[in-house]
Amino acid sequence: MILIPIRTKLIKEGDDLPNIILSSLRKNKLKLKNRDILLIASKVVSVVEGRIVKLKDVTPSLKAKEIAKEIDLDERQVELILKHSEKIYSKVHKALLTLKNGFLIANAGVDKSNCKLDEVILWPKNPQESAEKLRKEIFKRTKKRVGIVIVDSRTAPLRWGTIGLALGFAGFHPIKDYRFKKDIFGNTLQITLQNLVDDLACAAHLLMGEAREKTPIVLARDVPVKFSSKINVNSVFIPPDKCLYMKVLEEKQI
User: Fold this and answer.
1) Which strand ranges, in their side-by-side order, compose the sheet holding 87-92?
2) Strand partners, 40
3) Residue 240 above 80 pLDDT?
4) CA-based, 20 to 30 A from 150: which of 124, 137, 168, 179?
């Protein structure tokens, strides 16, 4: 498998993202091939879609003010987190643990990085639809059948630092099922599923960085996944009652 980071110009609201992707590939003397996967930072998808909020336009509630004081975060940002969260489970300095679109994520994806001082950026409105739209548009312009992954970052329990997360994906099956297969000693695996799409997001996140890199695209080639235009999007989500973490968290909502 080959991973190639692609630098771009500064991307702005309303830009033609497929054109930016393809022109950036050309500048790097790269041509798309069938079965390539394009991993794209969620932030640029959000920017293009106009998912930017000016904090001066946000009026914080009393609850937002109380939480903001406790966790040392802008009360207007906290108001947006409350608005865009489905559930809130815990809080630490500068962050709330939230449920958003089926993901456990800090601050409901409401992010203050890589935007102007008086702004925050939200997740794409529907990351899955955004990924599928990009896949179809890339095919329309190039006739190449590629995969798409929209990448954000997240934290992992009891670990410092961020790793990659696939917010949306298209063009390939995201899970490899090892259940009932034998290991090297003949043991039958019982519950093992490999999350291929998040593995890819983590690899791309390593190359994208988190600050001034201006590398929002990674081209992945020769990836051992099964390509298809028809995929089960929900196959990556585990029901809450079967999740190791959610069994505890459901009892601790704020």
Assistant:
1) 87-92, 95-100, 103-106
2) 150, 217
3) yes
4) 179
Burial class (CB in 10 A: 0-12, 13-18, 19+), 219: buried
pLDDT digits (tens, 9 = 90+) for 143-155: 999 999 999 999 9
* CATH number for region 1-50+126-254: 3.30.1330.100
The helix (H) or strand (E) run that includes residue 126 is none
- Picking from 13, 4, 38, 247, the residue whose alpha carbon sits closest to that of residue 150 is 38
Length of the chain equals: 254
Average pLDDT of span 81-107: 96
d(CA 16, CA 134): 11
Q: Which CATH code, of 3.30.420.10, 3.90.1660.10, 3.40.50.300, 3.30.310.50, is assigned to 52-122?
A: 3.90.1660.10
